[in-house]
Design goal:
Elements: H1 3-14, H2 21-31, H3 39-59, H4 78-93
């Protein structure tokens, strides 16, 4: 038997006029299903969340630059940076830095 047929039969057993709405809502909660009667409320909730997100997006001043002062080193490879660090440490030992 095809999975869609099994699913359809199970849904028709649970969601019919003979089953209490309370039991139907338990099944909905367990399997994260939204009943038709609740779709309008879900839509309003999504609409509010979208508006809040747009409001937040518009009112954020700017994203801080995560790299900040290290931006000038972005073009170097790890090996090149290691050489520069070694040279700097050697210059400190020689009293130059």
């Amino acid at each position: 038997m095809a999975p869609c047929s099994i699913r359809s039969a199970a849904m028709s057993l649970v969601f019919n006029d003979m089953v209490k709405e309370e039991d139907q809502r338990k099944v909905c909660k367990e399997y994260e299903i939204t009943m038709d009667e609740d779709l309008q409320d879900k839509f309003k909730e999504w609409k509010k969340l979208d508006e809040a997100f747009e409001h937040h997006k518009e009112n954020v001043v700017s994203e801080p630059n995560a790299l900040g002062r290290f931006q000038r080193f972005i073009g170097y490879t790890d090996e090149q940076l290691e050489v520069m660090i070694d040279m700097y440490e050697q210059s400190k030992l020689n009293g130059v830095a």
